[in-house]
């Protein structure tokens, strides 16, 4: 049985090795990126409104992690995505989606536990009760289980075929009104 447990920034930071293990199993990144990824994740814990859920087995071993925070100017992802959205659709549209957004930074489930509702429970659990107007995230722009999950809880494509500066993979930037599942406010 898998349970969800909310952890604060301090416990998250102390558990970064377990977080990185789940990330590595789920995403299979090149080994030379892991040190930088760990530093980025640790830095996310100081952003305003940071919240994290661990999905854990009955013995307490984490098998999934998801976290996010309130997005605001000065954060790398927020600034890069806002610029691209503004260029494509205009400032009002970008502000409508990112002006008061909960940014889901990482959502990962160990492959042995994928397809069992863990990811969905983490996404909906993270977004539940958030005060922000929208939720936004980036995901690989492919027909994956993650893309289906996000669509299933109300996320829509905002940008597709998006390549982050210095990157090579194509991503989709997706967003949803809060609360999830189509019950949020009308968006531009």
Automatic annotation (TrEMBL):
InterPro entries: Acyl_CoA_acyltransferase, GNAT_dom. Residues 2-185 form the N-acetyltransferase domain. GO terms for molecular function: acyltransferase activity, transferring groups other than amino-acyl groups. Pfam families: Acetyltransf_1 (PF00583). It comes from the Bacteria. This is Acetyltransferase. It comes from Streptosporangium carneum.
């Amino acid at each position: 049985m898998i349970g969800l447990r909310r952890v604060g920034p301090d416990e998250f930071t102390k558990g970064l090795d377990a977080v990185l293990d789940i990330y590595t199993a789920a995403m299979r990144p090149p080994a030379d990126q892991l040190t930088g990824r760990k530093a980025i994740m640790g830095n996310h814990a100081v952003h305003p409104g940071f919240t994290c859920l661990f999905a854990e087995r009955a013995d307490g071993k984490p098998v999934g992690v998801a976290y996010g925070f309130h997005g605001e100017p000065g954060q790398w992802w927020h600034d890069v995505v806002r610029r691209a959205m503004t260029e494509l659709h205009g400032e009002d549209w970008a502000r409508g989606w990112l002006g008061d957004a909960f940014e889901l930074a990482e959502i990962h489930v160990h492959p042995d536990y994928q397809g069992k509702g863990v990811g969905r429970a983490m996404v909906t659990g993270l977004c539940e009760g958030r005060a922000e107007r929208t939720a936004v995230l980036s995901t690989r722009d492919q027909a994956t289980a993650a893309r289906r999950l996000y669509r299933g809880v109300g996320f829509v494509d905002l940008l597709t075929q998006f390549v982050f500066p210095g990157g090579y993979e194509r991503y989709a930037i997706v967003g949803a009104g809060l609360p999830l599942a189509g019950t949020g406010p009308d968006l531009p």
